[in-house]
Design brief:
434 residues, 8-stranded parallel beta barrel
């Protein structure tokens, strides 16, 4: 045991009446909702990077945190892992997620970085033998080091492409070894700053070829996890290729990969793309590519990704409503891609940020389940389109052409009047569940 979380108890469910801040008020992992335990619905994950690698910096200021594991070398990396698994146990978190750079020191060469990753993954594996916490997903950091300033798969330098492919293989191997449920591709630098030096066709083809290799390697290894792309707009690249769910799906269709790859959608990224979280989730569900989510929020007055813990029950409820409408998570889950604020210095802050977020998600999720089970919202949606279900209108949609439809309008004297969308009624209905 380390001393970092000394004195902080394991978090248990005590119910809404509890005044104990170190307790869950709404998240009861064993509560059965829609025939399944809440823990199995929500599949909470802790983000290794924000919880243990983040130093408290922002775009205008450097490190504010003082952690005993900060520094280079494998001893520091193992101490970080010790603290991480202690926190997983305190929270009773079912999952965690990581990038390679979060968990191991950067080597002077690729071979050294690979050895460091393999050593720390072996250390993780030992810890996971006595821990309930599993791996939700792994990924490669292909954006922080200066070698990736012009992208990884889309880079004009073939050596960077090769280095990226080698890194992805190592991270996929690590994910598979730890029994990970998903592998995520986060293209933070896959975009461009100016068209003056960019070949859009070439870069798209390169990105697709890298993704094809990832998919092929998954099948070669016989791994049944999911490959996920995380849509990300504008940050850090000015023109990001994986801007939103629609853009990613268009890319997948263009290269015939829509049946092989799904999406990991982040609330903060949805906002930066000019959408709502539930919009992105609904679209992914409609397209059949909803895989997993990163749960956080942005500061709506800031134009960058602030990665704050969720605190808005109505927003969360609408998000989980779309997850449930899409059939719920299979390999995916709820990863807290969220960090405490740079003035939140204490170990307790790190624990309580997650406790509060898990309670907010539980409240929103239970409201979403009530909405879906009650069926009133879905009934209203179906009623709005009910006329399309008649035989005549189905035939018009399937077999009609402009000439026959015009003839029908003339013969029947069709002169439609607008119909109310009843938005306010439906908003009131949603609010009645919260």
């Amino acid at each position: 045991m380390t001393e970092f979380f000394k004195g902080i108890p394991q978090i248990h469910y005590e119910g809404p009446a509890s005044h104990n801040e170190f307790a869950y008020k709404y998240y009861n992992p064993d509560e059965v909702v829609m025939g399944k335990r809440m823990e199995d619905h929500l599949r909470f994950g802790v983000a290794y990077w924000h919880s243990f690698a983040y130093e408290g910096g922002d775009p205008f200021g450097g490190r504010t945190f003082d952690r005993p594991w900060f520094g280079e070398g494998m001893d520091k990396a193992k101490l970080k892992a010790d603290v991480a698994f202690e926190m997983f146990d305190i929270l009773q978190a079912p999952f965690f997620c990581f990038h390679d750079l979060d968990v191991r020191p950067e080597g002077a060469t690729f071979a050294e970085s690979k050895r460091n990753l393999e050593e720390i993954i072996d250390y993780f594996a030992e810890k996971m033998e006595t821990s309930k916490t599993k791996l939700l997903w792994g990924t490669a950091n292909l954006f922080t080091h200066r070698r990736f300033m012009a992208g990884s798969a889309t880079n004009p330098d073939p050596d960077v492409f090769a280095y990226s492919a080698a890194t992805i293989k190592s991270c996929m191997d690590a994910t598979i070894k730890l029994g990970g449920a998903n592998y995520v591709l986060w293209g933070g630098r896959e975009g461009y700053e100016t068209l003056l030096n960019t070949d859009l066709t070439r870069e798209a083809d390169q990105a697709a070829r890298m993704l094809e290799m990832v998919v092929n390697y998954k099948h070669k290894m016989g791994w049944d996890g999911a490959i996920l792309i995380e849509p990300k707009p504008q940050e850090p690249s000015k023109h990001q290729y994986d801007f939103d769910v629609a853009t990613v799906y268009g890319f997948l269709k263009r290269y015939g990969l829509e049946n092989e790859v799904k999406v990991n959608i982040e609330q903060g990224h949805a906002i930066l793309a000019g959408h709502s979280f539930d919009h992105e989730l609904a679209l992914a569900g409609s397209l059949g590519i909803l895989g997993s989510i990163d749960m956080n929020r942005n500061d709506y007055q800031s134009g960058w990704d602030t990665d704050q813990f969720p605190n808005n029950v109505p927003e969360v409820a609408l998000a989980y409503y779309e997850v449930l409408r899409a059939g719920g998570f299979t390999t995916g889950g709820t990863n807290f891609d969220a960090r405490i604020r740079r003035q939140s210095l204490d170990p307790e802050d790190l624990i309580l940020g997650h406790v509060g977020a898990m309670d907010i998600c539980a409240r929103g999720f239970k409201a979403a389940a009530r909405m879906l089970e009650d069926g009133k919202l879905e009934a209203a949606r179906q009623a709005r389109y009910a006329d399309w279900d008649t035989a005549a209108n189905q035939a018009m949609l399937k077999d009609g052409d402009l000439e026959t439809i015009q003839a029908r309008v003339l013969a029947d004297g069709v002169n439609p009047e607008p119909r109310s969308g009843r938005q306010e009624r439906l908003e009131n209905l949603v609010n009645s569940y919260l």
